[in-house]
Structures are given as C-alpha cells and as structure tokens.
Design brief:
Blueprint (H helix, E strand, L loop, with lengths): L2 H17 L4 H14 L3 E7 L2 E7 L5 E7 L7 H16 L6 H12 L6 H18 L4 H23 L4 H21 L6 H8 L6 H12 L3 H32 L14 H16 L7 H24 L4 H22 L4 H7 L6 H13 L2 H40 L1
Antiparallel strand pairs: 1-2, 2-3
Helix pairs in contact: 1-2, 1-4, 2-3, 3-4, 5-6, 5-8, 5-11, 6-7, 6-8, 7-8, 7-10, 9-10, 9-16, 10-15, 11-12, 12-13, 12-14, 13-14, 13-16, 15-16
C-alpha cells in the first residue's frame, strides 16, 4: 500500500468537496470511508478552507497530509458528481490508490455548468420573484429584477478578477442599491424597501448563517465560528455598499417619496413566488435537469408548511420556521434516497424562502447606523430563526441516522 497516493487521493476528494460547498461532516465522513475501504485507520479534520488527513500504516507509523481548499462557491452539480464517485470508490476501491485522484479530476473535467448569461437570468428571476414574495407589486418585481441582474453582473465580473469576497459583496451591494434608487429617482413609483429587500436576496448570506448554526449544533465549533464570521462580514459589506449608494443618490438627485403600497396575495401565490425565487438560484448554484424543479418544489412545500403552522399555532416566526425546516429536511432525505444524491442538493435551494438573510442585512445596517436597540433585537431574531432551521434539519438527519443504524444491525 502506497500511503502517499492514498493521502493524495483522499485530500483531492475532500478539497473538491469543500470547494463546491459540501458540509464539514460530509467531507470528513467521505474521507473516513475512503480510507476504511482500504482497511486503513484515519483521522480527519476539516474547516471550510482546509483539510488535514492522517493515516496509520501497518507498522504503526502515522502519515499526515494537509491541503488548503480553493473555495469556488456552492456547485450542486459538482457536489453530486463527487458524492457519486465516492460511493463507487468505497464500494469497489481500485487496487492502485493513485487512481482516486485521477478519477476525481476526471469527474471535475466532465462537470456541466451554465453559461454566464444564464447566471444573470437567475439573478433576474430571483430578484423579481422575491420582490413579489415580500408582498411587492409587478413594478417592484421589475425594479428588483433589474437591480438583482446588475448586482449579479458586478459580482460575476469581480469574482472572475479574483477580487476579495468582502470587496465583491460591497461593490455588488452598492450597484444593487444605486440602480434601485436610480429607478425611483427617474419616476418609477415603487416601494423602495420591497425592491431592495427582494433584490438583496441574491447577495445575503442567510444560507451561510444557517449552516453556521448547523455546524455548532453538530459540534463543529471551529467550522461554525469560521462560517459565522464570513456571514457577518458579508452582511456588513452589503450594509456598507447599500448605505454608500443611498448617500450618493441623495447628493445626486432629489429622491421622491417611496410608495408604501404592499400587496396581500393568497397563500397559493406566495408558494408560487417561493418556487420562482428558488428557480432563480438554480442557475448560480448549478442545479441541473430535473433536480432544479424538485428543489424549487421543496421551497414551495416549505413555505406552505410555514404558512399553515403560522395559522395554526399563532406564532409569527419561530415555530413555523421549525416545522417548515423539518418538512423540507424530510423532503430532501426522501429525494436523496430516490435519486441517489446528497440531501444537501435539495436543502440548499429549498431553504431560501426560510433563511433569515434579509434580517442579517437589517441587523448590520442598524449596527452601522448606531441604532443599538434595533441591532440587538434583529440579531437575536436572526439567531432564533437560523437556530430553528438548523434544529429542524438536525432532528431529521439524526432520526435518519438512527434508522439506518438499526437497519444495519438487523442486517447483521
């Protein structure tokens, strides 16, 4: 056994998974399983941008490899491809462990992706649909779609130039708010708060914040804190960018009064808007084929449960978030087993209507403005929602693991 080749292959697989947005526990479990397929004892430690793997040979000597992962953002197609490969490798490990890294690179070379114009279409659809989801009218939807499109274009261009994520987010937030206020200044009678709320969903780190809570609840303290810091910095960058845009627009133009009109739609329409909003994120997150439709269906299902729980319990936020998260997690687990792919593929998109992304942005905006009371209140509310979503996911995943363990014991 060439332990160096085994370590190379395991690190290649683990770093690719980290790079496409896999959860920490998935990365560590995958590497453990690969080593176990060769009857090798292993120790694995991962954080969002680094992986350390140690294996023990037959003589008791320890071999260790550390690799830094290149984070490219969430890529569901890549996640499913590497997950499928890891299943095959664990079921039938190649005699030469050097084949692991070669097969990982082969999968990477064959991955499909959307063209940049389709990413922009996703930002356009997502911004417009979420403006309707937040009770805006069709004018607000058009304005939010344009702002989301321009913000997404800025984000893509800056990411291609290898810009720092904080600067990319700050600049994209500036472009988003500037375009929204420009439409208001040039006579578009819109509710500017709804426009920015809908468009800003293309940038907010709500999913990252929820993942941070999930990491903490599962005991990954270092990974959780690292993810939390990134979420807070992202929210701060958005708040700074939008605040700078407002200050500039007030100096450039005399802004007319914003409309205060909001629309009350039927519960069915809100679920349709949730479906459409999730559809917009299928393109930037590279969800291919039928999986995209199923992910969006999960988003609509989650919001339907949220509205039903809100009506039954009378609780405005927390219990509905918990019940909706449980329903989405169950749906994701069912789809994962039917389609032989990670449940994460469905959770990432389906959770978008539930995640407290906008409240994170609001909290940071209040903090920058010096409004301490509203900052604390909004931040606590954000923690509460994220905690409910993470808890709902954890309850379902734990129940599934217990059932799988019992099934294996019966099989033995």
């Amino acid at each position: 056994m060439d332990y160096d080749l085994l370590l190379n292959g395991c690190c290649e697989m683990g770093c690719r998974l980290l790079g496409c947005g896999a959860e920490i526990h998935r990365v560590e479990d995958t590497v453990h399983r690969l080593c176990a397929a060769y009857q090798v004892k292993s120790e694995v430690f991962a954080i969002p941008n680094c992986l350390i793997v140690s294996v023990t040979d037959g003589q008791g000597h320890i071999h260790t490899r550390m690799r830094r992962a290149e984070i490219r953002g969430i890529d569901i197609e890549a996640l499913e491809g590497y997950n499928a490969l890891s299943r095959r490798l664990c079921a039938a490990p190649p005699e030469d462990p050097g084949q692991i890294a070669a097969q990982v690179r082969q999968v990477a070379a064959g991955l499909k992706g959307y063209a940049p114009w389709m990413h922009l279409m996703g930002y356009f659809i997502g911004g417009g649909a979420f403006a309707l989801f937040f009770s805006g009218g069709w004018l607000e939807a058009v304005a939010a779609a344009i702002a989301g499109l321009l913000s997404g274009l800025c984000l893509i261009l800056l990411n291609r130039s290898q810009s720092n994520f904080f600067i990319s987010t700050l600049a994209s937030g500036f472009v988003l708010a500037f375009s929204a206020y420009a439409l208001l200044a040039f006579g578009m009678p819109v509710n500017i708060q709804v426009v920015i709320t809908g468009a800003i969903m293309v940038l907010v780190p709500g999913l990252v914040f929820t993942n941070f809570m999930s990491d903490l609840l599962t005991g990954d303290i270092v990974a959780g804190l690292s993810t939390f810091v990134r979420a807070v910095l992202t929210a701060g960058a958005i708040a700074l960018g939008t605040g700078a845009a407002l200050a500039l627009c007030l100096n450039l133009w005399i802004l007319p009064g914003s409309s205060s009109t909001v629309h009350n739609y039927s519960p069915v329409l809100y679920c349709v808007f949730a479906f459409a909003g999730c559809l917009g994120f299928c393109f930037p997150y590279n969800v291919q084929g039928l999986g995209g439709f199923l992910c969006c269906l999960g988003g609509a299902l989650g919001w339907a449960v949220y509205l039903a729980a809100q009506a039954i319990t009378g609780n405005p936020v927390y219990l509905p978030s918990l019940f909706a998260a449980i329903s989405v997690a169950i749906y994701a687990e069912i789809m994962a087993r039917l389609r032989k792919c990670p449940a994460t593929s469905y959770l990432v998109i389906s959770y978008f209507p539930l995640v407290p992304g906008f409240t994170i942005y609001q909290a940071m905006e209040y903090g920058i403005q010096g409004n301490t009371q509203l900052f604390i209140e909004t931040f606590i509310r954000t923690f509460g929602i994220a905690g409910c979503i993470a808890l709902g996911t954890l309850v379902v995943s734990t129940a599934v693991r217990i059932l799988q363990h019992r099934h294996r014991k019966k099989g033995c």
